[in-house]
Design goal:
mainly alpha, 3 helices, two-stranded antiparallel ribbon, 69% helix, 71 residues
Length: 71
């Protein structure tokens, strides 16, 4: 699952240096090329959960950097 997420995340888009959430098109592109280890709905949920964790951490780091610059 982590390998799949890492492959899918390579298509991540950024806006002004801020990572955007993965979209279903990125997952669909992966699914067209690889066999899934679980049912599709479980796969989607896992990928989106991992992505949410990544985005939460990225936003925390960005906020911490912004707070540092203010001091």
């Amino acid at each position: 699952m982590l390998s799949a997420y890492n492959t899918i995340a390579r298509s991540r888009r950024y806006e002004q240096g801020v990572p955007l959430a993965l979209d279903i098109a990125a997952i669909n592109a992966y699914v067209e090329q690889y066999d899934l280890p679980v049912e599709r709905y479980i796969f989607n949920e896992c990928i989106f959960t991992l992505d949410n964790l990544f985005l939460d951490e990225a936003h925390k780091k960005a906020k911490a950097e912004a707070d540092k610059r203010k001091k």
